[in-house]
Design a protein that fits this description.
By secondary structure, the chain is an alpha/beta fold. The protein contains 13 helices and 25 strands. Strand 8, helix 5 and strand 9 form a beta-alpha-beta unit.
Length: 480
């Protein structure tokens, strides 16, 4: 039975999170569009994650939208505040009325004869369909339903509770309990100091250390600037400052990794009061920013380690045992609760199956065009933010590029635009190219990128801004 046709629109945006609302805000005035969202609320990532202490892992001045200044006090913002900010933006811009919730897109097929996408969705158990001339996926890049969850031997023998941060139980009481958090990424580093406030003891059990940098939760300079200058001007200056600082750290890390490594370890030693802790548990086997660097606000993780409410153990898990976690050296870490902060699983396009005239699309055979469109796929964009910088800096570039393409279509009366990759581009590389485990696991399935524009995403804010901002819509694009 064919799904019921719901509506037709010029533009359909899948996802009402940070990126989807960004795209909707940037659309040319008068665009007929709709937004569909699988969840029951606006917010995306910031609605999904509700574990203790969940917060931004970038400063909020660059993570927020450049056209709507952040007015909160903190520079490292709580997840709930970020969700409210996204929703308030949607309300203020009149976008919330365009969003249909509890509608999960499952497939999208381009019909060349009709010159439109048919998007199949499930809403409250019923199949519905949308038709759109242009399709935008703003679904992020990881699986909301199935995180990376390694199987641990003996898990069935553990007498306590095992939880994953992606599915945090609202009624979980860890007061006075021994907690083991497995992982060393941003989620684990956020959970440990937050849970340590009430738990008897929290142990962060990691296989491989991560570089960690402390930053002030409150940006005093930004708050002072906002008190003395108009909102838009102060926001522009603060974003420029923070953007420059973040990117400078990435550049310096690439050119002088030894220097940055020593500075980071010195910061850990000062925060924890122990050079041994810094060397033993915060010295990864890679250089700074070869994987994402984790931020801790006001040294909260270091303080928890220093006062003894938390500890870090680096080792390999042998198995779970009734009383906790047994390591390969035979030692056992006692636990009442085990939190498996073991990472994300990549899922491109939010699980939507893409096809062209019924033929499935293998994304690994397509090249990204300015990080916005993909070779051989007409009237389609996907929004992916930075993985080595603030997400929104890159996502907003893409949103503005989508708007530029749509304006050109309107001005010229074109109904179809398709990136055409020239011959000889080579094998390319994954367009999200970093050594992080969750990205490496999915590298073979990703669209490809080269070192040169327009078939590139550099993960370099200066290069990307220069090239994307000056992109020619006549280069390697076929208009009809």
């Amino acid at each position: 039975m064919s799904p019921k046709q719901s509506t037709r629109h010029d533009v359909l945006i899948i996802g009402a999170g940070l990126s989807g609302i960004n795209v909707a805000c940037r659309l040319p005035e008068g665009t007929d569009y709709a937004v569909i969202e699988a969840r029951s609320r606006i917010g995306g990532t910031w609605d999904l994650f509700r574990y203790p202490g969940v917060r931004s892992d970038s400063d909020v001045y660059t993570l927020s939208y450049p056209f709507r200044p952040w007015k909160g006090r903190d520079s490292i913002a709580d997840g709930a505040d970020l969700r409210d900010y996204i929703e308030d933006t949607a309300v203020e811009k009149g976008i919330v009325d365009k969003v249909t919730f509890n509608t999960r897109a499952t497939a999208a097929d381009w019909d060349s004869a009709a010159g439109e996408w048919t998007v199949t969705c499930v809403r409250d158990g019923v199949e519905v369909a949308y038709a759109a001339k242009y399709l935008v996926c703003s679904t992020g890049y990881y699986d909301y339903d199935s995180p990376h969850a390694p199987v641990f031997d003996g898990a069935e023998d553990f007498r306590g509770c095992v939880v994953h941060p992606q599915f945090w139980p609202e009624d979980l009481d860890y007061t006075g309990k021994n907690v083991v958090v497995i992982g060393s990424g941003a989620t684990a580093i956020t959970l440990v100091p937050s849970m340590a406030e009430d738990a008897a003891r929290v142990t962060m059990l990691q296989r491989t250390p991560t570089y960690v940098l402390s930053q002030p939760r409150v940006d005093k300079f930004a708050n002072a600037l906002r008190r003395t200058l108009p909102g838009k001007l102060s926001n522009t200056l603060v974003r420029a400052k923070n953007n420059s600082q973040q990117w400078a750290l990435v550049v310096v890390s690439g050119r002088f990794p030894g220097v940055v490594k020593r500075l980071l370890l010195a910061g850990v030693a000062a925060g924890t009061g122990s050079k041994h802790t810094a060397q033993e548990h915060f010295t990864p086997p890679y250089n700074p920013w070869e994987q994402r660097l984790c931020i801790v606000p006001d040294s909260d993780l270091f303080h928890a380690i220093k006062d003894g409410s938390a500890e870090v153990v680096t080792g390999h898990i042998d198995c779970f045992v009734p009383e906790g976690v047994k390591l390969s050296d035979g030692s056992v870490i006692p636990a009442d609760i085990i939190v498996t902060a073991t990472g994300l699983r990549i899922e491109l396009l939010g699980g939507v199956t893409l096809s062209l005239d019924g033929e499935p699309v293998d994304f690994s055979q397509h090249y990204t065009w300015y990080g916005t469109m993909f070779s051989g796929i007409p009237n389609f964009s996907a929004v992916i933010g930075y993985i080595n910088h603030s997400w929104t800096i890159r996502a907003d570039m893409t949103a503005k590029m989508i708007a530029k393409i749509l304006r050109r279509m309107r001005e010229t009366g074109s109904t179809m635009v398709t990136p055409i990759a020239p011959s000889g581009l080579g094998e390319g590389r994954p367009y999200m190219d970093m050594q992080s485990g969750y990205l490496a696991r999915a590298a073979a399935a990703m669209p490809r990128a080269t070192q040169k524009y327009p078939w590139s995403v550099q993960q370099n804010v200066l290069v990307d801004t220069w090239n994307t901002g000056r992109a020619s819509l006549d280069r390697d694009l076929e208009w009809r």
